[in-house]
Design the sequence.
């Protein structure tokens, strides 16, 4: 694994949040906007260079992270990831996490960072650790984009399925966060 200073962390926060009804990045999670919580998770994982991918928005200023506006709005996470890999090519690798997976853990993310060719978990293309300079596919989805890349597919850690929940609707959010 590279020195963590040569690895960037990116919170993917550029979706429409149409099923949620409002921007998921601003959902209150543990007393703070979800985007701030996810930035904190990347910091706790040991990353120092953290970015937010999505729409440029002054509200993100509280994260002290640079916002990387999507080149094409609402083109999906695969398009954003390709764009970021090109824009942040000075880093050795980039760890991508979605804004709507608040139950990810440092351990899950650190395991990805240990993979010398990058990696993701079986059945879950995100979170995703990629090395810059790798050739990626042209598919519309993250899964299609990484097919054929030399990234390790890790087995899900035992009893961790809940950690990979991404919350897309008010009902999912309420059920998961307020249980």
Sequence:
């Amino acid at each position: 694994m590279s020195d963590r200073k040569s690895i960037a962390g990116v919170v993917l926060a550029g979706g429409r949040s149409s099923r949620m009804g409002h921007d998921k990045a601003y959902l209150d999670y543990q007393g703070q906007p979800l985007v701030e919580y996810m930035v904190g998770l990347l910091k706790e994982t040991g990353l120092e260079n953290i970015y937010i991918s999505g729409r440029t928005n002054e509200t993100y200023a509280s994260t002290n992270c640079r916002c990387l506006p999507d080149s094409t709005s609402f083109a999906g996470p695969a398009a954003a990831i390709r764009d970021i890999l090109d824009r942040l090519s000075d880093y050795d690798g980039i760890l991508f996490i979605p804004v709507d997976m608040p139950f990810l853990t440092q351990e899950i993310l650190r395991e990805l960072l240990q993979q010398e060719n990058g990696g993701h978990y079986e059945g879950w293309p995100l979170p995703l650790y990629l090395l810059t300079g790798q050739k990626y596919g042209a598919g519309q989805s993250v899964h299609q984009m990484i097919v054929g890349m030399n990234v390790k597919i890790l087995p899900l850690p035992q009893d961790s399925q809940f950690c990979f929940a991404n919350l897309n609707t008010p009902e999912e959010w309420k059920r998961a966060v307020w249980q």
About this structure: The longest strand covers residues 124-131.
